[in-house]
Amino acid sequence: MDVLLDQRSLILDGFLMTLRLTAVSGVLSIVIGTLLAILRVCPIPTLRAAAGTYVVLLRNTPLTLVFVLVAFGFPRIDIRLSFVAFATVALTAYTCTFVCEAIRSGINAIDGGEIEAARSIGLPFRRVMSLVVLPQAFRRVIPPMGSVLIALTKNTSIAAAFSVTEATQVARRLANSFASATIPILVGIAVGYLVITLVMSGGFAVLERRVATVR
């Protein structure tokens, strides 16, 4: 316990990096995942196939391999970024596919009659999606979206293997420096992750109740 108190500044910095990765990757994943979901239901077969192929490939690729491909593949084509940027790209590329599928499930749950009614009054596909489909889809997928973002928070720990000083990397360093306090260190870091995920879970639960009230 003394180690955790003495090293609290380092541990806090590690969790701040974890939160930073989660926030940036989460926002990007929601934006890109929404675009992918739109492409997967759009009337152009080529775009549907391209989006579907990307989603299937990335969802079935281990996240660690995605990190390796980004961290070591990008420099080979002269794309040189910081390790934090590489981690953000890898997390976003992977997580956006799960966001896409969550949103697509919400789109598929919408009554087809509403979509046909919107088309019958002359609304183009873009307007149907923005005015009728997506607002309802987002309300329907709050629980699965929360699960995806909570999983993203835990997945940031893989960045530790690529020299990003987030919470898991801090735990590893402290365990190496204070071997006799390894268990308290690991338990302390685990509790930190637990607090973050519980707060996120509670936040999504509140959001879901408010949306249900509005409906």
Short recap of the structure:
This protein is an all-alpha fold. Helix content is 81%, strand content 0%.
- CATH homologous superfamily heading: MetI-like
The structural class is mainly alpha
Report the biggest beta sheet as strand number plus sense, adding barrel if it closes.
none
**CATH fold field value:** MetI-like fold
Rg, rounded, reads 20 Å
Separation of termini?
A: 48 Å
Low-pLDDT regions? none
Fraction in beta strands: under 5%
Helix content: over 70%
Total number of helices: 10
The H/E string reads HHHHHHHHHH
* Overall tally of domains: 1
The overall pLDDT average reads 89
CATH architecture classification name: Orthogonal Bundle
Tell me, briefly, the overall form. Answer: flat
Total number of beta strands: 0
> What is the CATH domain class?
Mainly Alpha
Question: How would you describe the overall organization of this protein?
Answer:
Helix content is 81%, strand content 0%. It is built from 10 helices and no strands. The longest helix is centred in the first third of the chain and has 34 residues, at 8-41. The chain has one domain (2-214): MetI-like fold (Orthogonal Bundle). The protein has 215 residues and is an all-alpha fold. The mean pLDDT is 89. Helix 2 runs antiparallel to helix 3 (45-59), helix 2 packs antiparallel against helix 9 and helix 5 packs antiparallel against helix 8 (142-155).
